[in-house]
UniProtKB/TrEMBL annotation, chains A, B:
One of its GO terms (molecular function) is FAD binding. Residues 457-671 form the Phenol hydroxylase-like C-terminal dimerisation domain. It holds the Pfam family Phe_hydrox_dim. Belongs to the PheA/TfdB FAD monooxygenase family. This is Phenol 2-monooxygenase. SUPFAM superfamilies: FAD-linked reductases, C-terminal domain, FAD/NAD(P)-binding domain, Thioredoxin-like. It comes from Aspergillus sclerotialis. Keywords: FAD, Flavoprotein, Monooxygenase, Oxidoreductase. InterPro entries: FAD-bd, FAD/NAD-bd_sf, Phe_hydrox_C_dim_dom, PHOX_C_sf, RIFMO-like, Thioredoxin-like_sf. Coiled coil: none annotated. Residues 15-414 form the FAD-binding domain. Gene3D superfamilies: 3.40.30.20, D-Amino Acid Oxidase, subunit A, domain 2, FAD/NAD(P)-binding domain.
Amino acid sequence: MTNSTGTNRQSKDHVDVLIVGAGPAGMMLANWMSRCGIKTRIVDKRGTKILNGQADGLQCRTLEILDSFDIGHRVWREANHMIEICLWNPDENGRIRRSNRIADTIPGVSRFTQVVLHQGRIERFFIDSIREHSDIEVERGVLPSSFDFDKSKAADFNDYPITVALQTLSEEEATPQQQNGSATRDGLFRSNLAADDTEDLIKASKRNNAGHSEVVKAKFMVGCDGARSWVRKQLGFNLIGDSTDYIWGVLDIIPITNFPDIRMRCAIHSADHGSVMVIPRENKLVRLYIQLQSTTHGGGKVDRSKITPEIILQSAQRIIAPYNLTYEYCDWWTAYQIGQRVGDKFSLDERVFLAGDAVHTHSPKAGQGMNVSMQDTYNLGWKIISVAKGLCDPRVLKTYQSERRRIAQDLIDFDYRFSRLFSGRPAKDVMDEEGISMEEFKDAFEKGNMFASGTAVNYGASLIVAKEGSAVEQGDGTDVASAEKNRVISRNHLATGLNVGMRIPSCKVLSQADARPWHLQELLKSDGRWRLVVFPGDLQNRNNFNRIVKLGERLVSKNSFITRFTPIGQEIDSVIEILTVHSGSRIKIDLLDLPDIFHPFHKTQGWDYWKVFVDDESYHEGHGQIYQNYGIDPQRGASVILRPDQYISWVGEADDYDDMEQFFAAFMKPQGPASHL
Amino acid sequence: MTNSTGTNRQSKDHVDVLIVGAGPAGMMLANWMSRCGIKTRIVDKRGTKILNGQADGLQCRTLEILDSFDIGHRVWREANHMIEICLWNPDENGRIRRSNRIADTIPGVSRFTQVVLHQGRIERFFIDSIREHSDIEVERGVLPSSFDFDKSKAADFNDYPITVALQTLSEEEATPQQQNGSATRDGLFRSNLAADDTEDLIKASKRNNAGHSEVVKAKFMVGCDGARSWVRKQLGFNLIGDSTDYIWGVLDIIPITNFPDIRMRCAIHSADHGSVMVIPRENKLVRLYIQLQSTTHGGGKVDRSKITPEIILQSAQRIIAPYNLTYEYCDWWTAYQIGQRVGDKFSLDERVFLAGDAVHTHSPKAGQGMNVSMQDTYNLGWKIISVAKGLCDPRVLKTYQSERRRIAQDLIDFDYRFSRLFSGRPAKDVMDEEGISMEEFKDAFEKGNMFASGTAVNYGASLIVAKEGSAVEQGDGTDVASAEKNRVISRNHLATGLNVGMRIPSCKVLSQADARPWHLQELLKSDGRWRLVVFPGDLQNRNNFNRIVKLGERLVSKNSFITRFTPIGQEIDSVIEILTVHSGSRIKIDLLDLPDIFHPFHKTQGWDYWKVFVDDESYHEGHGQIYQNYGIDPQRGASVILRPDQYISWVGEADDYDDMEQFFAAFMKPQGPASHL
């Protein structure tokens, strides 16, 4: 279709979403879009993808998310699994010795443990996944050079308020310079010790006639373009916070050492020479984070030409003595200055968003950066999709800043405490007030572990999280509550093991149709769908059975929320999927005993055998005890509404149709025939 | 290098191994060769790979094997997992009802359960794996047309006694004809109801000038070319046995039915209309094996044009009544006559071998065919490799027939009993002697399950299996024993939970260096290496510790079997890898406390952190209790020698260097510098 100004609306110059930056945050977002048929472009100023170094730590929660996109297993197989943390401190003679062993992942918080795999592989898995599900291509060596926002179009979510000019760089321009004469890749060009080259790249590209230029109009734009975000600068938003005086070096090496815990994650505090963090990695590599100096007071720039792998190694050797440490192979190295900053705003009119390092910078040692960045766009992705498809009210988009800016603030607080404890000199004794108490450090480490798993995230009350309290206080200050008359509050006492606002923890359940055990989370694929998980209790209890029969009747009625919010012509489970987990005996019930809506019939494929589960003993994998773990009474049951990102929106009575209806009606839009895409 | 007759020995016309047939058996063999750098060609007369139908059942043991090649996880993710078997029989009124539920995989026999995934996907995974590890390409539409064997060269394993002419077919010739007018793929062209087309293909190809022809010389040739094996015919070997009168149809459909157990594996015996086996599959498919008729007495050929999917469905509908059953989508179908036959010989002078359907045919319903076929070449592969590399005496090759022909005989016996019970009419009462007792059927099913898991295989005594008894009696009659003076006998009482001749079962152990839990089997990759697994017991016991210190000293001595049998210039673990699993507390021992040979030092990579394990509690995955499960006394220990296919060769005292030495010396060849390849 060609409009009156001659623009072809279907061509590459009009997109639903323009993503700037193809790091983990940008890739996660493009991945979301690829699953849900959203017209998307993703550009990155760098000409090549990352092959070494950069971020590596992956939280349990990140693995859960990647698994919901069917790429978690690729990470799990290749990654180094982090099992134990060893703390090393000076003894009374100043010699380092192992003082503690701690589980790296708190047992029970997730079905995954924390792992380490470098960013380049994660990006590879995303690229494979995006290709498999769409024709979106990552455009490298392409950067935006101008930005215009037409505020008059901002309220019409079918319109294109964003105009961006894109420059294509020559290969030479798009390839970052390495330090002179070095065979090993270094990451200094991305480090905060290096100057930003974005403006130079834009100028060079404009000078260069070979540079291709085009204009793109977008409904949404997302800046995933790092700590020096070009998008953030266009918006005039700021990162608020400070840098510290600590300079850190990073070495990725295959170590040759007699230090006994080199394959453990270690925090080593020497008496007088600073600290090393040891992160064992895939392919026999070990990453060392080494404190180099605490000079350059006043925030002055360090002369990066003076930092070399040899200097970083020598620092490590002093800290780890009397053990020896050397290497023949260095894979990558870099240096950076710690700073903790958070963006003041995450969005312009819910049309342009910032994510990842563009809105939070901090120390890498807690292994949080790549995770929180990907989780930003994991949070944002399904919200953009549901608005772009016309399924949800745009007010849902406000929850992005409310939820993720609050997380960024928590992260920075955590990182500030953690970095200070890690960078400090160990206290010589209880009277040494300038030193850091190693007991305090251990306590912080253990507490930090829960935070670091990513499973402790608890989103505040909002129109998509039905819980008590002030939406303003529980988030970053943005008002994201439902109108009071529409507000639904969860009945927490029906599922005392669940927390509304947190991701649903996983237990094993058995498929009713074939007795196969599944982790509940494995059923919650990231495909943009909401889920109503009905826990009807023991179905041999006549009362429970009658309750779901009645619920089934209301759900299939012509005006039910399921019917109303599903575009006509689409499958009945395409917007809200209903899963059932009953308790009691699997063999006392047949799937077809349940009302049809719980296992919908399809005229060419028969009954749906993949929606009803049971909390029972498996032949080979034990008993998941999901009712017990979730704190649901099998004689009463409960229902749970899950967001497309597996966070718990609502908990209520198993058959409380009215509250379910009211919850969804607060932000979902009644649908006509499926023609909006 | 060009020899005197002008033949380039490095070119494609001289190969170590020529594989005829690229089904699962041929692919498994090519996969082995790809891992170990053996020059190989693999050809198949069919022009396209299989996309639908064919074999689908995968045993636990097959998954273990595929996992040892790092492709098991791909099967595990895509396959349908088989959890429960439901038996349906007529009640007193002749109406079918569920009489029993049985675990499909006996709990505890393996870390995998049985799964179903069609042959085409397995072949895909092999192709990916072969490509990743070698430049071997599967040559399709290529078939051998002449065979010559120079017996005078058979004893020199560096020479090429085999000469074969290969014809390349045109695309049309290589594409099998489907039944007229059908949109659904059928498998009749591969069925034993169809005539063999190999000779026609050869003739057509020779007539056709476009057909490319070439002559290949090979050290080894393996016929994996199916029940009508062209290779077998060249050798003049025979399949011995009978066909039955039962004709079976197979339908792969997405069923539309109210039969409650359609996603379970079911054996349904109707009172008067025969039997159906239900095999739920991947992608919502269900396979039905349906008994069509028991006519055509005297082995006459059935008119296959009379067999259609509609006829097969109607038979199924009669059996499954009063439940209804229909479909809109049929993926594939075929029909076959059950026959049980075993090859009389599996090898010509240990230079030409037969494997898979070429030496055993039977009913498909027990899901054994693809498994036993792949396991044939899994057994053969490493033996050919070790002889081709000059590491082992060629007598090792004799154990292929001894071990695998015995398995084929066992399989046929199993299948005979199982098919008879399945095909028969249910007995009306205890006086009904022509009918089959459903109790007897259930017992046979349960017993058959152990056999069907593939984990019960127990290879007889031989020069590579050090156990009591007659090698002739325990195998197929071939003499494969060591000379009496060299014979070593295992001390079974040191590991009462292990059976010499069986594959080692798996338990979880923790890595000493990083506390990560691994299944022992995950450490036993199929890379052609033998493994000495030392269980030294509790190393805080001074005596145990001293014993492994002494063992370590002998293992590193200049004349040790490890040193002697490893080519000079190769890594010390390249022929025999030493793994250690100690008992007692992980945290009381450091890896570097153990003698170097147990964690060898590499000058650029430092210590080897991946060879020492401990039987201890993990943080997240429980305690493997490997000493208890293997029946090894932690105060005494034991050592175990494993073949490259994970079968147990020998069990002895932890430090019984002399027996280890004698065992290996019976078939391994002392090495010079590594120049033989």
